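## retry 2 of 3
previous attempt timed out at serialization; input unchanged, resubmitting
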Amino acid sequence: MVAGMLFVIAIALLLVMIYRYLAKINTFFDNIPIPCLPTVPLFGSSRRLILKRISFNDFIRTNYERFPDAKVFGMFELLTPMFVVRDPELVKHIMVKDFDHFINHRLTMHEDSGADSNMIFTRSLFMLRGQRWRNIRTALTPTFTGSKMRQMFMLIVECSESMVQALARQIPREYEVKELFIRFTNDVIASCAFGVNVNSFDDPENVFFRYGKELTDFGRLHVFLKMMGFQVCPRLMAWLELDIFDRKHVRFFTDVFRQSVEARERLGVVRPDMVHLLTQARKGTLRYQPQDERVEVESYATAKDGELTEQPLGTGTLTLGEKEMVAQSMIFFLAGYDTVAAMISFLAYELAVAPDIQQRLYEEIRHTADVLEGRSLTYDALQAMRYLDMVVSETLRKWPPNPTTDRHCNRDYTIAGHGDFPDVTIPVGATVAIPIAGLHYDPRYYPDPERFDPERFSEENRQNIPTGAYIPFGIGPRNCIASRFALMEVKAIVYHLLRHFEFQPTERTSVPMQLKKGFTTLKAENGIHLKLVSRDSN
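## retry succeeded, writing output
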């Protein structure tokens, strides 16, 4: 009897402690003079998202639109209070000018503290923090300059031509294009990141394709539990060396990378891909040169370092270990496999439902092909296609790969007040969220934002877009280091496909597009179904 009463009392005390803890957290913004989204215990401000009532993109947009006159507002992601910044100039300050206050992403995993640790994901550039991030970013920056992309370009052309040849052997039919483009991006990443030639159209179940499917499936229960573990007890997860990447995947990609390096060193083979560039970085022979950035025409969406420094960060001779090299290759594979495929899929969708835009782009492609006189597409020819760049830029505006990004405040930061809003101080340790999808749909910067209009990014019009209002790959020193590669890949396959095929909607094409609900990457609710019709048969 006494034991039973003690158990009841213990449970009651635990519930009271939990209640008081949640009540204390929910008062975080009470003394901060900014508006705040309503909260629900445990769910914070994210109840609709967690219960899959709304898509991630629409969640970010609707929150952004709640406080149109505020520079910043508060919300809770589950138990985490977040300052959401919705002013482009303030976004620019946080991500560029005052970067020293916001160097890192928020801490979701405990950093790998030992050189002998087997954890790979925490060694990736995205997860690194402080000086370790600076060192690796410095070593990797020369890998993704314009001149290095030029060298890697023909590998992407080969994959593009292989895809066109495979589709040409099939009768015109309907495709779920995300599945189609994932096969293309798989081949590109296998070739460029690991130096392995695969053809996912002729060999649909190759090991790279299968492992890519598994790596990007964050809905798997054990992956979900590991992600929760990193949020709740990151030190324990690090001590147990439980990585987000499955061990079989790490072993496979490590073996592939190691074998590629050993074969090249033994045979003296030089191939213009990530393996070669990372090997140079490891040896300290890959250095940033000012001429690396001299590209005659740059894609508008290319991530910019901003105004922080006169020179990019990559000006050193730092070296990488094998685990760091494998980590960058795996995160490169992870991002390029699904994210780029989604970009191409939504671009194809917009062209299919706007045949006038598709026709104008086709005419530019046909003109470029005529100038090349039967030769393969070149990097310079691709960069010179301005309407293609406008179409890609507008796709990234309407369908950003990541609807939000974040920063960790490492020093108290004061935001000057305006109008009826007083000064606001973001305290050290706080999380700042940048609502990319909200900024990209703000009618003050993009009139009629639901409309797909490449003309927003013409030479005349894009000058009117504030820097902080268009950030598909981020800005400042923590921007997406591989934005040039992603843009080059998207443009190359669009050129090759539109030259030979026309995208057409079908009865299964959703108009308007409905996105998959819940906390997930950019996906269509029912897939993107389009028909590819050969132009050669017209």
